[in-house]
Amino acid sequence: MRSLFLAVLLSVVAPAVNAAEEKPVGQIWYGVMDAGFREFRFRIEPVPDADAATVQQLVSLDEGGRVFRLDDFRQNDSQLQFRLNVSKAEYSGTISDNGSVVTGKWTQRGRDFDLVFRKVDAAHTDRPSEVWSGVMNTLFQKLTMRIRIYKQDDGSEIVYLDSVTQKAGGFKVQRTVEGNEWTIAVDSLGGSFKGTINKEKSEVKGKWTQGGVTLDLSLAPDTSEADAVVKAPSRPQTPKPPFPYLVEDVTFTNETDGVRLAGTLTVPKSATACPAAILISGSGPQDRDESLLGHKPFWIIADHLSRHGIAVLRFDDRGTGVSTGDFQTATSEDFSRDVEAAFEYLRRDPRVEKNATGLIGHSEGGILAPMVAGRRSDVAFVILLAGTGVNGREILLSQGQLVLKAQGVTDEAVLKAQRDMQVALIDTVINAPVDATQDELVASAMLILADVLPADASEEETLKAAVSAGIERVKSQWCRFFLTHEPGPVLKKVKCPVLALNGEKDVQVDPQLNLPAIREALRQGGNTRFETVELPGLNHLFQTCRTGGLSEYQTIEETVSPIVLEIMTSWVRQNTLAPSAK
Description:
Blueprint: E1 28-34, E2 39-46, E3 56-60, E4 66-69, E5 71-75, E6 79-84, E7 89-95, E8 101-108, E9 111-120, E10 130-137, E11 142-151, E12 157-163, E13 168-178, E14 181-186, E15 191-197, E16 204-210, E17 213-221, E18 245-254, E19 259-268, E20 274-280, H1 297-307, E21 311-315, H2 332-347, E22 352-362, H3 365-375, E23 382-385, H4 392-406, H5 412-431, H6 438-452, H7 460-474, H8 477-484, H9 487-491, E24 498-503, H10 511-524, E25 530-535, H11 552-555, H12 562-576
Helix pairs in contact: 2-3, 4-5, 4-8, 5-6, 5-7, 6-7
């Protein structure tokens, strides 16, 4: 486990990456920000099916197309301003007289960066002169590496390195070509590539060296970056108007924490009160649709339920989208109070049947729903979509192994090394005092790893850097809570009907590990009104899939299996409607 490209896989319960590849409609701004050792390409575009005047998103092309909903977006004839609450960044720029250029400053963590946006017509305006890519087999996974070369008018060139698999790009590169020999130096990463190009100019075969580790890497021409426009992925399930139900933007407040939450309420057009459900998102800052890679699963679930007589409230996480608050400092307990505020809001709506409101939680949302249901007797039902039955430590260790296996990793030594690294990082944080310093945590983890991942002296500093990065992620307030939270005792308090669904091929929340634990906890709590179902061929997002691997999420057109939609709708109606209304 060494360096950026050998970094430990510490994914959490739901993917935090929200990459969008939709071709936007309307005005697009494109800019490049020089952050020293790395450049970031940004695109500002309207959020599909939203008010373009106030709702915009930023796509970070060098972070795998990650999408950030812009907070407090404001644009007039002379100024463009926005904030990114999730990363505590701000931008303020002046629009040129002809309206085609914005010149301004990006401010983050006390530093200012010049950032100029220009108005463009296409999603991709960046046309490299050459692109070369190849796959490198590391200790833990296969990584696609890409070199982008931009020829300048004076004959010089600007070169960047992207680790496509890790969604980390824009690293500045110095390329030297002497005859058929290529040397590529990436000083910021302490890495380099040396290779020989063949006579046909179709392959550069060589080796990548970093932190004392040398790996084979062959590069071949790649035309994917040269496409002028990113085509919108096919998402056939995304709802299209007109809708046979009411759609309302709503706000409500978590009075305890002073957080104002914004969401969408869909209500069937009916003369009588109807049952209702609150959708609770997975980990990471999620918008009300739980948008991911062009998919909008919560919108699809809400649409299906409301077409069948069930009101649905879905909302932006605190500090995300239009909701206020600080996402980064919150834990699952804090988020559960946001859910309870949503519940109280629905209880006051006369169109919602009394005592017929339930909770549907996906992934981490499956932790929050039992928290709320366990302390309230008026929750009508709970649906756990890939909910957890064991603590976060077990989830992450299981997840790390399953993700690698889905990528085709079968070497037991590799799988053991990955698990050893995760154990060292996780247990270091769990067992250390809350006020332990970063240096103390890193030193403790390094002592553990010295016995299980022996490294040469030349590799120690690189390993230490990787450990430090891993510790930084695991020591957050949210992760500390997640690692030690035991869902079992909470589930024992849930007395309402519970439906727990997991996909058979879920590599993030293993059904074999979690469904039996959920079932046993409910049984021990005396709950006799529950079902636990493992659904064949479905992944963590409940898509019909082949391997369940994370890389499949984007390529699958299906957002939510129709089977899951039908099961949920039938079950909610069965557990909330009077016999004559079913």
